[in-house]
Amino acid sequence: MTSGISRRARVLAAAVGTGVLVPLVAAATPASAAPPAVTCTSARAGLAAKLQKDITAALATRQGTVAVGLYDRGTDTTCTLRATSAYDSASVVKVTVLATLLWDAKKSGRYLTDRENTLARAMITKSDNAATSTLWKQLGMTKIKGFLAAAGMTQTKPGADGYWGLTQITVTDEQKLLKLLTAKNAVLSDNSRSYILKLMGQVVSSQRWGTPYGVPSGVTVAVKNGWLQRSSNGWRVHSVGAFKGGGHDYVMTVLSHGNSTMNYGIATIQAVAKVIHKDLAAS
Q: Per the database record, which ranges form the Beta-lactamase class A catalytic domain (predicted)?
């Protein structure tokens, strides 16, 4: 009888112990669910810590989910936040469409036709959707996936049924593409790279927001932005850019969704871009 009581007592004690532990475990959950941190590395002393601090501060009061990528060749600096999180591409995929067109033309040993040049210019400089749909259909899924494989953009999933704006993209892959555009490589010819950057440098003024914000004078700018509202996750607002000058040669990607308005998303991207340009210029 005594052993039965002690056994029950032990069971009860274990149960009480469990009960005591439960609130402690629950209290610890928010810490494990904390948002990912900005991580930076750099060959330039003090730059990584400065960028990490300033990008984090720029996002501290912003709503929505933001992903960031930065790479500067001059100082071998890299910053990332949510580098592998997938976002609906909206219009930033148009750079991939043009790169695919040029990659395929190079493989075929041909130049773009006048019609393709006209469509490409409208697609990049004015973000023309009809021109994009025409080129997307012309290329087809096999060629688009072929380019993504050649570029090592393994995280990018093309939108189905002609919905190019719903292509899934990540900071990692967008940064890979921007690096291809800004340095010699076997995937895109030098002429193709300069052509894409030239068009990204001629984007109409009303669409030159985002990553170029706060860029120092004398630094060249190539940009492509995207924006799309959906019933879930509000506005997607993205900006990819390439910048060269002042001793720096850098590419930047900022992707976001969960924005209440398009302008709110733009302001978030520009808060990040401003501190990045400032910190690099000062380094």
A: 118-255
Q: In which domain, by residue range, is 30 found?
A: 1-34
Burial class (CB in 10 A: 0-12, 13-18, 19+), 119: buried
- Both 149 and 278 in one domain: the answer is yes
- Give the model's pLDDT for residue 34: 77
The DSSP letter of residue 187 is: S
Asked whether 227 and 91 are in contact (CB, 8 A), the reply is: yes
Same structural domain, 232 and 92: yes
> How many whole angstroms separate alpha carbon 80 and alpha carbon 87?
15
Q: Do 116 and 71 share a structural domain?
A: yes
Q: Are 241 and 255 in contact (CB under 8 A)?
A: no
| End-to-end Cα distance, the chain | 78
Q: Are residues 29 and 58 in the same domain?
A: no
Mean pLDDT across the stretch 190-204?
98
Tokens linked to 176: 């890979």
CB 212 within 8 A of CB 225: no
The reply to whether 83 and 138 lie within a common domain is yes
pLDDT tens for residues 134-155?
Answer: 999 999 999 999 999 999 999 9
Q: State the alpha helices, DSSP H only, in 126-170.
A: 129-151
Please enumerate in sequence order all residues whose Cβ is within 8 A of that of 214, keeping only pairs 6 or more positions apart, or say none.
Answer: 270, 273, 274, 275, 277, 278
